[in-house]
Amino acid sequence: MKRGNFSKIIWRTLFFITAVILTIGFIPREKQFRYHFEEGKPWRYGLLTAPFDFPVYKSDKELSIEYDNASKNFTPFFISDKERENNEIADFRANNITNDLDSALIYQKIEGLLRMAYKQGVVDVEIYEDLKREEKQFIRIRKGSESEEYSTKNLLTPRMAYELMIRNSHTPEVKEAISQKNLNLYIEPNLLYDTATTNKFFNEIIQSIEPTAGMVQKGERIIDRGVIVTHDIYRILKSYEKKTLRTEGKFDKSLYVLGGESIMVIIIYSFLYLFLALFRRRIFNNIRQLSLLMLMVLTITIASYLISQRWLLGIYMVPFAVLPIIIVTFMDTRTALYASLISIMLSCWASPFPIEYVILQIVVSMTAIYSLKELTKRSQLFRSVMLILTAYCVTYIGYTLMSEGDISKLNAEMFIFIGINCFMLLFSYLFVYIIEKIWGFTSNVMLVELCDLNSPLLKSLSEKCPGTFQHATQVANLAAEAANAIGANALLVRTGALYHDIGKSVNPIFFTENQHGINPHDNLSYKESARIIISHVKEGLNLAKSYKIPESVKGFIATHHGNNKAKYFYTMYKNEHPDEEIDESLFTYEGPKPRTKEEGILMIADIVEAKSRSLKEYSIETLSKIVNNTIDDIIADGELSETPLTFRNVSEIRSVLIKRLEAIYHPRISYPEEKR
Question: 483 and 545: one domain?
Answer without folding.
Answer: yes
